[in-house]
């Protein structure tokens, strides 16, 4: 009696593909998360630079001082007489006079005048400037924290050294300017120094590389509050007579809405993005 040998089938699985796949998936997700953080950091860096430039080199230079501070009413002094030296001597005799309705609107009595307007205008102007500066610094810190997540320990150490160097440079230059000019220092020196402060916060965020979610959320809230400050500043400027509503191309209330939307748009975008940040 012959016995038929049984056929035994063995299935051999290759572990190389499984190991390769197991390595690739976490690495790719971490790489994608890091690249998104870097992109967010670059966008926040651009936003911080835009807010800084708009606040200090456009609004503060061309609007807060020339438009608001110089039109602040002085108690006991006629505004037209006190600012007449700023107006050229030639009068528009050959030019047609504005319509009566427009002339009546421009010369309308402001709601706040005297000491109240003299106090309210500069406080409102520089409170808004402080809010814009805080928002810019918060955006810079959020940008630095996001960018620092892609750096190694050596890169963060270099960022820390540069941050300390920037802080020391700001102190040295500030001391030199104060020694030379005192309280009469040129305004552009102070504006340039604020740019150095923004750079310091970027480098400090890169050195720590922590708190990207918290800094991003704080930057979003600060930017929205800064936009509210813009609206409040413009509105209070009209109540004090420093701003004429007839100067705007569009009606004043829609103009305030446009200012708020443009100023706060990136903040509303950052709010939902901050909750998705993972380290």
Task: Characterize the structure shown.
- The chain is built from 8 helices and no strands.
- The protein is flat and about 110 Å long.
- By secondary structure, the chain is mainly α.
- The chain has one domain.
- Helix 1 (15-68) packs antiparallel against helix 4 (115-148) and helix 4 (115-148) runs parallel beside helix 6 (187-208).
Number of strands: 0
Order of helices and strands: HHHHHHHH
Radius of gyration computed on alpha carbons: 29 Å
Termini gap:
72 Å
* Unreliable parts: 21-25, 76-93, 99-107
* Helix proportion range: over 70%
Query: What class, by secondary structure content?
Result: mainly alpha
The main β sheet shows up as: none
User: What proportion of the residues form beta strands (DSSP E)?
Assistant: under 5%
Oligomeric assembly = single chain
Overall, the morphology is flat
Q: What's the rounded overall pLDDT mean?
A: 79
| Count of runs of 4 or more consecutive helical residues | 8
Whole-number tally of structural domains: 1
């Amino acid at each position: 009696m012959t016995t038929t040998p049984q056929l035994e089938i063995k299935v051999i699985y290759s572990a190389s593909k499984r190991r390769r796949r197991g390595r690739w998936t976490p690495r790719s997700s971490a790489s994608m998360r890091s690249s998104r953080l870097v992109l967010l950091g670059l966008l926040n860096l651009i936003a911080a630079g835009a807010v800084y430039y708009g606040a200090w080199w456009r609004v503060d230079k061309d609007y807060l001082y020339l438009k608001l501070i110089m039109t602040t009413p002085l108690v006991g002094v006629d505004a037209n007489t006190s600012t007449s030296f700023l107006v050229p001597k030639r009068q528009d005799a050959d030019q047609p006079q504005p319509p009566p309705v427009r002339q009546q609107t421009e010369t309308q009595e402001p709601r706040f005048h005297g000491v109240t307007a003299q106090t309210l205008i500069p406080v409102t102007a520089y409170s808004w400037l402080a809010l814009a500066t805080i928002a810019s610094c918060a955006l810079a810190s959020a940008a630095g924290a996001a960018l620092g997540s892609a750096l190694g320990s050596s890169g963060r150490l270099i960022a820390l050294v540069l941050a300390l160097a920037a802080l020391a440079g700001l102190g040295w230059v500030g001391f030199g300017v104060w020694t030379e000019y005192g309280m009469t220092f040129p305004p552009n020196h102070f504006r340039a120094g604020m740019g150095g402060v923004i750079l310091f916060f970027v480098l400090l965020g890169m050195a720590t590389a922590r708190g990207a979610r918290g800094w991003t959320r704080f930057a979003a809230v600060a930017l929205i509050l800064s936009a509210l400050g813009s609206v409040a500043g413009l509105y209070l400027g009209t109540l004090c007579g420093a701003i004429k509503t007839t100067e705007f191309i569009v009606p004043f209330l829609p103009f305030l809405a446009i200012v708020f939307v443009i100023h706060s748009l990136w903040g509303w975008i950052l709010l939902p993005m901050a909750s998705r940040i993972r380290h």
